[in-house]
Design a protein that fits this description.
The protein contains 9 helices and 14 strands. The protein is of the alpha/beta class. The strands form 3 sheets. The chain has a 6-stranded mixed β-sheet.
Amino acid sequence: MTLQTLNTGLFKLDGGAMFGVVPKPIWQKLNPADEQNRCTWAMRCLLYEQGNQLLLVDTGIGNKQDAKFFGHYDLHGDATLRDSVHKAGYAETDITDVLLTHLHFDHVGGAVRRDGDRLTPVFSNAIYWTHPLHWNWAIKPNPREKASFLNENIMPLQESGQLKFLTENPFPFAEIDLIYVDGHTEKMTLPKFHVNGRTIVYMADLIPSSAHVPLPYVMSYDVRPLLTMDEKTRLLQQAADENWILVFEHDPITEAATVEMTEKGIRIREKGKLIELI
């Protein structure tokens, strides 16, 4: 049983959108912005091996969109999903399952590649998992999220026959608990792992970085921000009480952290690489 992070590159998003109501003079100290007010963010995935099963959690942004699309996000860094899978000692064909926390382009884009005029799943032997209510939410998007749900990232998974829905099919990792949250988007899925006596939760976009641990730090992208705060409150309290390790998908520096209750509320206690904290 092994669990490791995979880096898939860096990109930029508007700092104001990422930090919501928090004023720029405060968040600027946490993640400095460029001249276009954009901050650098990671697209960090997880790879979990259990027996003959190899699970990938999220897939980054991929590389099949055009230069105009990528120009908005300034992809940079040397890491790619393909290279990171290979550096971990595996091939794309070794992946048996892909859990998509949600279907926004920076989480699902790397699941599908362009072969000439065809769009095909990158992991040809894998089952792709998503929540059925989130799938319905994504294929009939609301105006707020429409730009984040791209058909070319989503429909090829269903058309390939490799897509299965959580809650409707047995998830083949009984030792992984799945937490469903609805503040960021409908039925986002957070996997909770139990490794070496530790509990590790992949935070996806509920708490995208260590800077987002304080309760008011909620992204403007969230469709239900007050619900996000409630979900953060419950999860962070349990994480502090039970000494969970939280893995941050978008933090450009900090992979993972534990948290504790302080006089100012829940704050980071210890942070570092996931392998150092387990």
